[in-house]
């Protein structure tokens, strides 16, 4: 028996399992977040919000699959799970800015590279945040392409406050939205949110770096598939980046966003 070969075989298997698990997480868990229960709006209301288009490896077509928030001309802020996965390459992502319409209009800019937070992948969806550097000169600002107001790192958002998601993700009709939509939800106490997510068959950790929001025990309003990486606003201020949820707009399980506050220093060190 050739032990070395066996070992090598196991390590290749482990390697494959690892990637299949990552691909599964990317496709099946993280794909959850769309705007459910919202209304159409135009891009002038959210000029810092951009589409993240994915190029399909097989069809070679581009399609909006995530969203991001403009930090400055060269950098946008999104969810790490949108810039990650088995076949991920920056060449398979691009940004569309300054348009209300999904996959059309505005300006398109290529992605140079992503800086996924170093803790991403270590504890469930914790650290699901990325700073993305755009190619060339990046974005040119105008009335519908502007930087976002980022939350102050020490600010604490109380429970039950109205907050807003916006995006082009799946609506209650089950398909992506042709136009930008927004929806108002309310911040949910983190302990309650943690308890809810702990009841799942495969419990998901709710960490201090996450903000839960929805209509608790009511449901019907949420971000969903295709809204990932997009904003959770408190007023005009970006406080969260859409990360995941148990389904969408579920009464029991609020939507979960990555809290931007704990990452402000890191964002500044990467993007400014
Ligand atoms: C909410 O999520 C739970 C757990 O996945 C599921 O059993 C339940 O059917 C969902 N509720 C609705 C209304 O979709």
Short note summarizing the structure:
The chain is an alpha+beta fold and 272 residues long. Helix content is 16%, strand content 32%. It folds into two domains: 50-148 and 264-271, Trypsin-like serine proteases (Thrombin, subunit H); 149-262, Trypsin-like serine proteases (Thrombin, subunit H).
Helix content: 10-25%
- What is the CATH class of the largest domain? Mainly Beta
Number of domains: 2
Separation of termini? 57 Å
Strand order of the biggest β-sheet: 10-11-12-16-15-14
Main β sheet profile? 6 strands, antiparallel, barrel
The overall strand count is 16
Uncertain runs? 1-32
Based on secondary structure, the structural category is alpha+beta
Bound molecules: 2-acetamido-2-deoxy-beta-D-glucopyranose
- CATH architecture tag of the largest domain: Beta Barrel
Order of helices and strands: HEEEEEEEEEEEHEEEEEH
Strand content: 25-35%
CATH superfamily of the largest domain: Trypsin-like serine proteases
- Number of helical stretches of at least 4 residues: 3
Broad shape: globular
Query: What value does the average pLDDT take?
Result: 90
State the CATH topology of the largest domain: Thrombin, subunit H
Describe the model:
Belongs to the peptidase S1 family. Keywords: Disulfide bond, Hydrolase, Membrane, Protease, Serine protease, Transmembrane, Transmembrane helix. The protein has 272 residues and is an alpha+beta fold. It has two domains: 50-148 and 264-271, Trypsin-like serine proteases (Thrombin, subunit H), CATH 2.40.10; 149-262, Thrombin, subunit H (Beta Barrel), CATH 2.40.10.10. 16% of the residues lie in helices and 32% in strands. It has three helices and 16 strands. The strands form two sheets. The protein has a six-stranded antiparallel β-barrel with strand order 10-11-12-16-15-14. A six-stranded antiparallel barrel has the order 3-4-5-8-7-6. The model is unreliable at 1-32 (pLDDT under 50). The structure holds 2-acetamido-2-deoxy-beta-D-glucopyranose (NAG).
């Amino acid at each position: 028996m050739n032990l070395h070969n066996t070992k090598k075989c196991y390590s290749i298997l482990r390697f494959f399992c690892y990637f299949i698990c990552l691909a599964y997480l990317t496709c099946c868990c993280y794909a959850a977040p769309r705007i459910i229960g919202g209304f159409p709006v135009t891009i002038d209301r959210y000029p810092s919000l951009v589409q993240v288009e994915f190029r399909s490896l097989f069809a070679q077509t581009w399609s909006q699959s995530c969203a991001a928030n403009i930090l400055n001309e060269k950098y946008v802020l999104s969810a790490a799970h949108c810039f990650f996965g088995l076949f991920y390459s920056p060449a398979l992502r691009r940004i569309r800015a300054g348009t209300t319409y999904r996959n059309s209009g505005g300006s398109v800019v290529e992605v140079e590279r992503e800086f996924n937070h170093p803790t991403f992948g270590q504890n469930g969806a914790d650290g699901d945040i990325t700073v993305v550097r755009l190619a060339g000169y990046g974005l040119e600002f105008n009335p519908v392409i502007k930087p976002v107001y980022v939350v102050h790192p020490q600010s604490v958002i109380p429970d039950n406050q109205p907050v807003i998601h916006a995006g082009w993700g799946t609506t209650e009709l089950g398909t992506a939205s042709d136009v930008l939509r927004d929806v108002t939800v309310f911040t949910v106490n983190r302990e309650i949110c943690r308890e809810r997510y702990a009841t799942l068959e495969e419990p998901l950790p709710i960490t201090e770096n996450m903000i839960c929001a929805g209509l608790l025990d009511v449901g019907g309003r949420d971000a969903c598939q295709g809204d990932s990486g997009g904003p959770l606003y408190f007023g005009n201020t970006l406080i969260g980046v859409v990360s995941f949820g148990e389904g969408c707009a579920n009464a029991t399980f609020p939507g979960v966003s990555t809290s931007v506050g704990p990452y402000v220093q890191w964002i500044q060190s990467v993007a400014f």
